[in-house]
Amino acid sequence: MSSTLRSSLSTLWWVPRGLIFGLMAFFIFGPLFNLLLWTVAEKWYFPHTLPLQYGFSAWERVFAPRGGALDSLRNSLVVAVLTVAVSLALAVPAGYALARLKLPFRSLILLAFLIPQAFPNLTVYVNVARIFYEIRLNGTIPGVVLVHVSHGLVYAVWIATAAFSAIDVELEQAARSMGAGALRAFFDVSLPLAAPGLMASAIFVFLESLDEFTGSYFVGAPDVNMLPLLLYTAGSGGNYQTASITALLLLVPSLFFMLIVERFLKADVLSRVGR
Amino acid sequence: MSEAGFLELTGIESAYGSTAVLKSIDLSVRHGEFVALLGSSGCGKTTLLRAIAGFVTPTAGTIRVGGYDVTQQPPDKRGMALMFQSYALWPHMTVADNIGYGLKLRGVSRAERAQKVAAMQALLGLEGLGERKPANLSGGQRQRVALGRALVIDPEILLLDEPLSNLDARIRLSVRHELRALQQRLGITAIHVTHDREEAMVMADRIVILDAGQIAQQGSPEEVYNKPASAFVAAFMGAENLLTLQGSVEGDRLVIAPGPANALGSVPLASRPLVSGAIEARFRPEAAQLFPVDAIPTLGPGMTFRGLVRSVSYPGGVWRHVVQLGDREVLADSLQAFAAGDQVALHVPAPSLFLFNSDANRIR
Questions:
Q1: ipTM > 0.85?
Q2: Where is the signal peptide (chain B) (predicted)?
Q3: Which H/E stretch holds residue B315?
Q4: Which residue of A has its CA nearest to B148?
Q5: Which domains, and CATH codes, for chain B?
Q6: What is A65-270's CATH topology?
Q7: Which tens digit of pLDDT belongs to each residue from A150-190?
């Protein structure tokens, strides 16, 4: 009697659970589905639930030479790759030092990388744009890269620090004891072992750079146009097809890399982020 | 030792913050000698090993290898190989790569490297495991890979940081002898850090007992076992039974005053540096002999105490008794079991009775 009651109760328990999962799926996939529909909608207006006509004419417009999407895509990718390169070049030594050396004010240094995010972006980037204008960095790829690096360094340094802290010092000492110099031990032992964490930090920086709008707008536009700017222009102009296609272009690498990050970032590294 | 040692430590000091970890350590190790650094945790033995290896810079003193001062040399320039307690195998390299790393650094050609690694694998019974990653090895196999990695570069000095403490008790016993035999065969100078008294006894030519950053005693296993220089060493080497007696030096004998558990007695002084006063007597459970109080045979020199058996257990081989002597309880082994509540006589032969003046060298 009681067992049948319990089993029916546990069946009942699936009702709220199913509802919650259903709602979550709706909130995540609903907008995505809408976005996908818009990319192939030729004609779609109120009060129709679904597009009246499907087609790829929006894609042709976006990817036409005059559409600017290819330019923006190229700019975005070039900037993102350069941002990753510069961030890692700074974050690898910085992260190693923060993880290994007994630095005074270590947590303060780690916190300092958050400063670019701590103030309203607009204020910061308007001033950055003014300074860059004076030193002729405004409207150049290096200028945008610098802005993105200042933004992405917090992820790069924090994750790199965590990745290096997760490596047992004795593994490096063992290499030293076998006759490897400090640099050799770093390249043979520390770097390969930190590689998954560094890879994850590179992906984060890449995605941040791809997504970044405010800095790109103030420092890059109108000479260097990026994908988010294209999205903004299209969206504000009511051109949902172009906006959706641009959004899709931004979304695909994000989803792809997130899957990779999830494989690379192990719990032992994650547990040390920010410590 | 008339000739200067191969490894020569003079006045090594080290401090962690304001706490002194090592206090003026002098140690001389001959070529091919196996020295065990023995001590409880926190005595500074690992710090000393790391100072020799070059991972800890001593605040004072010099380290010489074959006459050369290496005190300021980095670890990779010292010609030593350290085997870590954690083994510190590189998880991203295969067994063969782990073992061959030191050879690769020395520019040994790929073919020669493969041949030497294979020979080392054969020596250590690791055949067929070359392509495995350390994560897929058992504890004993990892230990042997770590040993092989250290041995393959033919180090002048092999440093072992508790290399056996992560092994199963059963494997540990056989590995002790294997490691010792290997060291003797290869003629390597070895410094072995351990907190396991028996391990040090079985493996080492010489045992150096460290206590609070100082060398409490050094000598052959028989010496430190049978002639402990201090109450600390006696206790550390297993003489945990402690009695406090009153003694006075009379000629070449120490006369012991009657106490709650003993009558007037005396033992030969036998070059023990004792003075009259309170005496700390220590002995091992296996050194004690138990007799029924009404049937005490004629005994050689030593002390006889009277007491009450509190409890009996059988750890194997002999019966272990908890015997109350006055206000103290001691452990005593006997082939013959006594029942709890029996009155017994407990005799400790003079050579096995370690006597120290109570005020000097108090056990911490």
A1: no
A2: none
A3: strand B302-316
A4: A178
A5: 7-231 (3.40.50.300), 233-357 (no CATH)
A6: MetI-like fold (1.10.3720)
A7: 888 888 998 899 999 989 999 999 999 998 999 999 999 99
